[in-house]
Amino acid sequence: MSFHGGDFDVIVIGAGHAGVEAGLASARMGANTLMLTLNLDAVAYMPCNPSVGGPAKGIVVREIDALGGEMAKNIDKTHIQMRMLNTGKGPAVRALRAQADKFLYQHEMKKTIEETDNLLLRQGMVERLIVENNEIRGVVTQTGAEYYSKAVVITTGTYLRGKVIIGDLAYESGPNNQQPSVNLSYHLQELGFEMVRFKTGTPPRVNSQTIDYTKTEIQPGDDIPRAFSYETTKFITDQLPCWLTYTNEETHQLINNNLDRSPMYSGMIEGTGPRYCPSIEDKIVRFNDKPRHQIFLEPEGRNTQEVYVQGLSTSLPEDVQHKILRTVPGLENVRMMRAGYAIEYDSIVPTQLWPSLETKKISGLFTAGQINGTSGYEEAAGQGMMAGINAARKVQGKEAIILNRSEAYIGVLIDDLITKGTNEPYRLLTSRAEYRLLLRHDNADLRLTEIGHDIGLISLERYENFINKKALIDEEIQRLKQTMIKVTEESKTVLESIGSTPIKEAINAALLLKRPEVTYEQVEKLTPPDKRLDSEVAEQVEIQIKYEGYIAKQLEQVEKLKKMETKKIPENLDYNAITGLATEAKQKLTKVRPLSVAQASRVSGVNPADVSVLLVYLEQGRLKRTENTK
Amino acid sequence: MKIDVKERISKRGDPGMEFDTIAAISTPMGEGAIAIIRVSGNDALHIGDKLYRGKKRLCEVETHSINYGHIVDPETEERVEEVMVSVLLAPRTFTKENMIEINCHGGIVSVNRVLQLVLKEGARLAEPGEFTKRAFLNGRIDLSQAESVMDLIRAKSDRALNVAMSQLEGKLSKRIQKLRRELLETVAHVEVNIDYPEYDAEEITVNILMEKAEIVQNGINRLLQTAEQGKILREGLSTVIIGRPNVGKSSLLNSLVHDNKAIVTDIPGTTRDVIEEYVNVRGVPLRLLDTAGIRETEDIVEKLGVEKSRKVVSKAELVLLVLNYNEELTTSDEELFEISQGSDRIIIINKTDLPEKIDMKRVKMLAGNQFIISTSLVNDEGVDELEEAIKQLFFSGEIESEDLTYVSNSRHIALLNQAKKAVDDAMNAINEGMPVDMVQIDITRAWELLGEVIGDSVHESLIDQLFSQFCLGK
After folding, report:
1. Which of A423-432, A472-481, B278-287, B357-366 has the highest mean pLDDT?
2. Which of A23, B126, B323, B466 could cross-link with A35 by S-S, CB 3.0 to 4.6 Å?
3. Chain centroid offset of residue B49 CA
4. Exposure of A187 by Cβ count < 10 A (0-12 exposed, 13-18 middle, 19+ buried)?
5. Omega into B197 within 30° of 0, i.e. cis?
6. Which residue among B153, B435, B473 sits closest to A276, beta carbon to beta carbon?
7. Which chain A residues have a beta carbon less than 8 Å from that of B471?
8. Residue with more model confidence, A441 or B392
9. How far apart are CA A559 and CA A571, in angstroms?
10. Residue A86: its chain B contacts at CB < 8 A?
11. How many CB atoms are located within 10 Å of the residue A514 CB?
């Protein structure tokens, strides 16, 4: 029995990390938004590791915050520890990572959603889409409710035709025995979407009280209070540590002896797993000369004894998992609470999407997160953010927001997905970004706040603070470039105190700051500004001056590409009609349908000659049009 | 594993190349008195200013003006060529981009040298027809010409593919692949340190990067040396004959020229009086410098003095020092030994038909381990031995004449120079105390540039390496 459930501007299917950002962004931009999810108790659920951030991913979280998203604020409120990683390296690769209280994380997120205007959170399983003339009209749930909308965002994570596998046991299920979403997957195939099957996995969880921590190494959080969000003012000081231990010969032997019982090797698993997230059995087989593997013991929250055993992701049978755990120092008497498992799920081939994350096939239908072939909460949230923004803008008749590769890791992620596709669950790595010195943790606000404000997700107050900060940075850089530091007793003492050679003649303050051992702190002492700058401004001044040469070099490369980015390609260009194109290029370009020549050049199988041909063809077309209008 | 050449070529490339700055010699190669190097693109003036020394900087002069000055090698400030440079600012130019045109007068060799300098400063060697293509893309040429531009591009890419294929099979690509492998593992290792900071892989320190950078720097230098040889194959080994009056320089010149078919003769430069002659000696093309001096006066030392000889010698890659068997060594002889010290040199003891008066012991001492050839040029004796010595000198060392893989393609040379610069930058950064991930930017750049030489710059292979080299994950 079907019935009319209601009319909305935007409907978001799913309330995981992609879904919540999509729903919140859309609602906050003024679109009347419905968020449908299988289980209201699984909003913003972390089915795998209880952590947010890390290299590249942490920077995505900062970007989400600069655009006005929620992930940063939510983890700031609910973490049990935070650490800045790569502090011994340059600023480009520094990244923040938090261990989450995964239960608190969910509660906080759900509360925020519930309190947001224009946003209705409702339990329900979507089974079909309502599509007319290749345009989305709404969705139909299992209970027969028909909801109508102008845009729909699908964020089904690993739930689409999900299948859990432990040893020789396999059953249809979402993560952690949640209901899977089966019919929607078949429906998407009926609509003509090309789907792939991916696989991921999770390790067992154990009871903290049965761990002998004396045999492990402590991994505390940073002493300095940290936060992801630029708006966070309250910091959590009471942190919980994680613990490090290792596998050993005995563990490896045990796994080797039981490989025949592993579904990975018995052929039971058909989905492609990610290389960066191998199961322990995979690690032992592929790296059999490595004498030990790291195991991190991570608390899942403050009000639980459950501990996540990072490094032991496995789909071996439950009895083997028990035995493996007990070979690890500190876990000799451990009690397992949940077994690890592998999960297979359906994703759509992401080259079926425009850079806005709208599907090419159905106007108004967007997809984000693991359904697009990614893995990771942050990757999902970043896409959810953009899909939510663009769904709302579509409804409001505005142009899509597309972040480019030199602007944000989110831009790199989406461009990679829609241009190159992926043959394994896609994880962001810093090495995927060609301009990583521009895409830093520290300057996410400088890169994106403007956009966040333009689209209405950043408050005026925050925006004004941002403009003020930017002005302070520029002023201080100018000042230092025009200030000479003289040879004085003070300059001698200050420089000697940090082991730097005292200056022999007056030197420009900016030049002095370029010395590797000199920080803003010393320069500030030698030439204090009128008003002391806060640490974020000082950090920017230091980084922008110190790495000026490198930054300029990367900006130059970006500039070179700009012209190619501005050469737009019409959505419906008939590549088969272009005589000079190689056959392979025709096929690939027809599939990807890039929107700029720069994007076309990144499609694999398109060579520089094809790009030339394309440019000439486009120019011909332009000329013909102008000649016709004469 | 078999590598699909076509697949690799297709993945090559910097998409920015459609609008980067390009350069080429745009006058026919050969005997023209003037050659023009055309540079087009955003950086044209900027590149020009790095090389041009005149009254004003090129970016300061008026558009559509012609400016007198010199092209120098910016590393040494050595003058390479006297030039007139036309500055043409967009959009009123052939390509509608900023352009400069460098008018050179010094003959094929110095024009090539200027071009190499332009390429070294960041311009890319233009593909055939590329100026026309730019003109078209920027809306300068009308529709009727479009088809021919298309044909040109297509033909070019087919040709490029063939050339690239033969290159890939050659030694060059093997050497470059070796260098890239050298870098790849390290680069992947640094990436793991960055992306998996807690993973128990050893931290790559700048010291390890320095070691790798040095290995690669050496490798690139060696390749660039073969580029020198490749250049010699095209342009000739610049050779000078020196010696006191009447030792037989003229006879030597004549027997070299007469024995061997001259390739090109008498390219007079309009701004200098060096006259060059080309001869091919057993496969080694020699470009004989200052032959006019020898022909007209037979008297280069006395007329122009040792200083001038020193100058001529400094331009030469091979010095043929002629001594008289029938006379004692003079101070002039000793001076000639001294000024040609350090050059590749062959000592020719002429007039062996006459009685020995020269102190051969002393000659041997001065010559060290260099070739000493005895000749009697009037009787046509010893010329064979001399030619054999020249051949051996040129085809010496690790490179065997049957197995030559010279880097001779200007694009490759330019890329290798850029890769070398990236490695140099990395080494400087290490010395300046930059953190490892900054140094990595230049190292990765070098790796990519080397890849472009052989048509393989796939970023994905770095990520593949990452996961095959390290056991990562949760």
Report:
1. A472-481
2. A23
3. 21
4. middle
5. no
6. B473
7. 278, 283, 286-287, 290, 293
8. A441
9. 25
10. 194, 197, 437
11. 15
Tell me if A48 is assigned to a ligand binding site: no
Mean pLDDT of B156-164: 42
> What residues have CB less than 8 Å from A198, skipping those under 6 apart?
A271, A272, A273, A274, A344, A345, A346, A347, A370, A373, A424, A425
Shortest CA distance from B12: residue in chain A: A607
Task: Please tell me which residue of chain A has the smallest CA distance to B462.
Answer: A431
**CA–centroid distance for B338 within its chain:** 27
Q: Are A456 and A30 in contact (CB under 8 A)?
A: yes
* Rounded-to-integer distance, Cα B191 and Cα A412, Å: 17
- Rounded to the nearest angstrom, the minimum Cα separation between A311 and chain B is 4
Reported as a single tens digit per residue, the pLDDT across B52-110 is: 999 999 999 999 999 999 999 998 898 888 899 999 998 888 888 999 999 987 666 77
DSSP letter for A269, please. -
Q: Judge: A278–B472 Cβ closer than 8 Å, yes or no.
A: yes
Distance, CA of A288 to CA of A255 (rounded, Å): 11
Q: Does the pLDDT of residue A490 top 80, yes or no?
A: yes
Q: Can you say whether the dihedral through the CA atoms of A387, A392, A397, A400 is positive or negative?
A: negative
Residue B40: strand pairing partners: B22, B99
pTM to 2 decimal places: 0.77
- Any idea of the CA torsion for A85, A88, A92, A95, to the nearest 10 degrees? 10
Contact A395, A9 (CB under 8 A): yes
Cβ neighbours of residue A384 closer than 8 Å, sequence gap 6 or more:
A17, A18, A19, A20, A21, A22, A25, A153, A155, A368, A369
Residues sharing a CB contact under 8 Å with residue A435, sequence separation 6 or more, in sequence order: A405, A406, A554, A557, A558
Residue A466, CA distances (Å) to A60, A147, B177, B223 in order? 19, 40, 48, 51
Would you say A5 is a known binding-site residue?
no
B460: closest CA of chain A, how far (Å): 8
Gyration radius (Cα) of chain B, Å = 26
Q: How far is CA B252 from the centre of its chain?
A: 29
ipTM for the complex?
0.83
Fill in the DSSP letter of residue A601: H
B334 exposure class (CB count in 10 Å sphere: 0-12, 13-18, 19+) = exposed
The answer to whether B393 and B344 are in contact (CB under 8 A) is yes
Interface size, chain A vs chain B, as Cβ–Cβ contacts under 8 Å: 158
- Cα separation of A77 and A100, whole Å? 9
Residue A273: what pLDDT? Answer: 74
- Note the Cα B29 to chain centre separation in Å: 17
Q: Which of A264, A258, A248 is nearest to A311 (CA)?
A: A248
Beta-carbon separation of A613 and B153 below 8 A: yes
Q: Which of A286, A430, A434 sits opposite B471 (nearest CB)?
A: A286
From the CA atom positions of chain A, what is the Rg in Å?
26
pLDDT of res. A415: 97
Lookup: tokens for B148: 């021919």
Q: Which long-range contacts (CB under 8 A, 24 or more apart) does A565-569 make?
A: A565/A404, A565/A596, A565/A597, A565/A598, A566/A596, A567/A596, A567/A597, A567/A598, A567/A615, A567/A618, A568/A595, A568/A596, A569/A593, A569/A594, A569/A595, A569/A596, A569/A597, A569/A599, A569/A600, A569/A614, A569/A618
Percent of chain A whose pLDDT exceeds 90: 81
Angle formed at CA A130 by CA A127 and CA A131, multiple of 5 degrees: 130
Q: Name the residue in chain B with its Cα closest to that of A578.
A: B150
Residues paired with B346 in a beta bridge: B320, B371
The answer to whether the Cβ–Cβ distance between A550 and B441 falls below 8 Å is yes
Angle CA A90–A93–A95, to nearest 5: 120
The DSSP bridge partners found for residue A359 are A353
pLDDT tens for each residue of B223-236: 887 666 555 555 56
- The Cα angle at residue A628 between residues A626 and A630, in degrees rounded to 5: 70
